[in-house]
Each structure stands twice: as structure tokens, then as C-alpha cells.
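Box S2. Input/output pair 1.
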Amino acid sequence: MLSFNKSINLALKSAQIYKGCLSIFSNNYCAQIDKSDEVRLSYLTDERQGIAVIELNRQKEKNSFSRHMAAKLHEFTDILSTDKNVRAVIIRSLVKGVFCAGADLKERKTMTPVDVHRFVNSLRSMATKFENLPMPTIAAVDGAALGGGLELALSCDLRVASSSAKMGLVETRLAIIPGAGGTQRLPRLINVALAKELIYTARVFNGDEALKMGIVNHSVPQNEDGDAAFIRAMKLAEEILPNGPVGVRMAKRAISKGIQVDLNSGCCIEEDCYSQIINTKDRLEGLAAFAEKRKPNYTGE
């Protein structure tokens, strides 16, 4: 636990970061105190410094996407995209039993066709922004992730689900299609024919089934607090933290861009990414630490 004085100093510093918002610190966790926020961005501290957590908090609406919620996700991805101090991002839900229930259908009913088109485009753009964040991203799916909720998870690099979590791209039940990238990301993640089957049938599956299909990286038994996937996602993020942040970012870029092209073009992308690492201080630090048989101290430079 942090000392009282250190906690106060960190709180004052965080208040400046959040432009006057008060903050609390518990278990290396810095979180904004504003229970009205539908989406929160928090930064972990001490040995978990470098991990950012996005929390979905639309309690009554089961984290269904509203205009405001989508706007906040756009805002936070813009902030994170230029933050070189963040080495991993976890997105989770604060609503027990639900990750994200997809679109807010009550709000959708009030929209004109033009409004619907613009809003779906906004969700697609948001998922693409999340996918393009330079650092690794992890979705902690501790509950239902349906429609746009699963599409948000698919935009992450890694996914951890509780074994009981219900997931599915269920849009065809409403005579529409996945509109936030689901028709493109799911077939790129798993067998194309299986992706078609899941979308055509609007099938709902659990975490264990998602693991077998290759949709999630890990499926864990749910605990009494309903945050088993978040705990496992945190362990993954902690495994990433000690590694060179520039190297990890370049590895993500090489994989994400290279998988979209043919092998020769992909190798050219890898060459370009590798060339950006050669002159970094971190590369020299890694070599020195290996020679001196000590842990490296990477700074992201």
C-alpha cells in the first residue's frame, strides 16, 4: 500500500492530469471519482504503472452503446494513441454479468435513417481506432458481449472471457448485420466458414466455446466478484510490462499490418518495423542487461 503522504502527492498530481477531477488510489489503482461517467479511463500505479484501464459503466442500460458512450470511447482512444507511457490497455465492464450488450435499441428508435447511418459509422470508426492503438489491448469479457459488444472485443489484440460469458454477433435476428467491423474481423480471426455460420445463425456461445473456436485467448471460471476475466487480463498485461515498449509496439505493427498483405509484403513491413528499433536506447539497454546478467530498465526510447 502507498504511504499517506505519497498517496496525497499522487492524488494532487492526478487531479492536475484530470483537470481538477478527484482521484482515489487503492491496490495500485488510480480511478476518477465520478459515478455518473458511462466510460472511465484510469491509470495503474507502482509496479503496474504503464497499464491503462477503460471501464464501461452504463449500469441500467447494460453498457449498450449510446451516443455519449461512443463519444467517450472516441475521446479516450485519441488520448491513449499518443501516450508513450502506456504499455498495455485493458477494457472491462463495471456492470456485473455484462461486458457490453451492443447498441442501445431504445435510443436507436429515436434516430432517423441518416442518424443511424452516422452512428453506426461512428461505432465502426471507434472500433478501428481501438484496433490501431499502438500498444497491446486486452478485452476482459466477464459477462455478455453481444453484437457491438463482441465487435468491440474483436478490435482488441487479446481477449479473455469468463467461461460463463455469453457472446455472439446476433444482428441478423434484427434483420441487420454487424456494423462495427464484425463481418471483417471475425473471419480474419477464425475459419471463414465458421464465422459465416456464427453470423448467419446469430448464434450465442460461452467463453469455453469461444476458446475452442479461437475467438478468445483464455477462458476462466467466473468468481464471486464477477471479475475473473479482468484478473486474468491483468496478469497478461503484467507479463507485457517488463518487455521493451518500443519492441512490443513494433511487433504489434508488424503483425497487424503484415497479416493484411501477402508474405513478401509482410516481410517488408517487418523490415521497416525492425529498422525503427535498431537505434533505440532500449535495444542497447537490452544487450547491456543481458551481458551484465540483470533485469533491463526500458524507458521507451
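Box S3. Input/output pair 2.
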Amino acid sequence: MDALLSSLFSSEKEELYILDRMAYFMVLMAACTLVTLLFENVPYGRYASSKYGFPVNVRFAWFVQEMPAFLVPLCLVVSTSSAKTSLLPNQLLIAMYFCHYIQRSLIYPFLIRGGKSTPFASFALAFVFCLYNGYMQIRYLSHYAEYPAYWVTHPCFIAGSVLWFFGWLVNVHSDHILRNLRKPGETGYKIPTGGMFEYVSGANFLGEITEWAGFALAGYSVHSSAFAIFTTVVLTSRAVAHHKWYHAKFEDYPKSRKALIPFLF
């Protein structure tokens, strides 16, 4: 892996420059995505459409598209001269990242029950994003990120870590609720209840947004912030779309339930 990176970049200074530009580009893509999502829902799940390509089995799609977010960082940590992985702040941030993606790429796909096929375009874009972001996050944390020795006791790191953990728990628990809405043999959609679904329609999205916002606060870098911004844009749009869909489909949908932020929005 070191040889490959050496062939791509003439120096560490150049690679860090590229990593920074990648983060800024992700923020730009978040802005473009925000505009696009004003007119079109992300085409997977209940919003899947044949105009975005042939269908890909949902379990296969989730497994393959998320795998670069796990394998590329794993190779970067194991197979390169990771100069910063001996430092505690870097270790903890890398652990947060892997904790999410081990669950998302190696566990979540095999727990899916039913589910609509994913259009190829959505599958391909997700694959590219996971490859791009996996390299950007972990290469920066494992080789370039520098934190003061006291960083793990800094309020930003502590608050960010708490937010990340709370978001991770909400995300995993909400996915569990969604998987178990239907009894064996049942089909169709049901109103999710329990956990944060008592307060918002997009509890799973709220969990993931909170998770990466905490990661960004703890990591305190343009790279982690860009990821949090992009995630917030995509998942906020999806939560609002779900909220409108639930209200249109179910006459008895709870009127007090918000789209994404309890009691507010």
C-alpha cells in the first residue's frame, strides 16, 4: 500500500493537500446534492425507480457498496506506515469510524428482511462515495492528524464522543425496530413505534446524523466536518420525504411526531 501511495503522490505534503481538497470538494457536492434533493428523492428503498438503472438485490447492494468504507481503511491502517495510529486521540477516532462500518458493511446487510432492490445508479454512487470517504477519513487520521496530548480530555472531544455513541445507539436500535415491524409472512408498510420513533419519523437518520456530527466535533477537522455535512444533507432530505410519505399513506399517523428533530422539525 505504501508503494501505491508513493506512486500517486510525490510527497506527504502533496497527499495532505489532496486530502484537504477532497474534503472541500465533498462540501461542494453536499451543496449540489442539497439543490438536487429539492426536486428528487434519493432513488433507493421505497423511492427506487427503474429510470436509474437495473435493480440490484438489496442485500448484495448494501454489502458491496459499503465494503470499500471498511476494506480501504483497514488496508491503510494495517498495510501502511501509519505514523499517527499510536496516538490515543487518533486511535479512538479510528475506532469510532470502524465501529460504524463493521456494523454497516458486515452485519447490517445480512439482517435485512425483504426490501426493494436498489437501482444500479444508486448502488454505484454509494460504492464510489464509500471508497472516497473511507480513504479520506482514515488516511488523514492514521497518517496526518495531529492533536495535543490533552485532546481526549478536551470538551470538544468528550462532547463529540458522547454524541457519537448516542447517535450510534439510536441508529442501531432504530434499524432493529424497522426490521421487526412485520411478522413472518406479512407484507406492506407499517408505522414504526418505539425508541426515537415515538418522536420523529426518521429516527434511524437522526441517529446517523448525530453520530457523524459527534465524530466531526471530536475529530475537529475539515475532513470529518465535510462527512458530517454531506450526511446531514442526504439524510435530512430522506427523513422529510419519509415523514410526508407516512402522513400520506396512514390516516392514523401520529400528528405530534416530527420529521427529524424531536418537538421541532
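Caption for Box S3: The longest helix spans residues 222-249. The chain is about 65% helix and 0% strand.
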